[in-house]
Design goal:
By secondary structure, this protein is mostly helical. The chain has helices at 19-22, 32-57, 80-98.
Length: 99
Amino acid sequence: MNGPRMGTSQMNGNNRRPTDFNRMPASDKPVGSQHDDLIRYIFDSWTKVSQEVDRNTGTSVIFYQEQENQNLKDFEPFDLAGFWGRRMVQNYQHQSHNS
């Protein structure tokens, strides 16, 4: 299969962008400010979390253990798929009975 080909860098150590990037319209290139701010925020946040983990645990591994929430002790999940299935059967039976 032959797909679109990207240009390749020269082998003599001259680092050159692929030729397809050189032909892209300027509007398709990343706009910097918001992208840079987002990358900086993610990097800073991850660095902060990493430093906190290193400071608190050294080289040990942290495992998350969920605590039981007392507000949800009587919670029973609702079977939405079952509800819609029963409703569809009831509607079908009701339509068949009235026909």
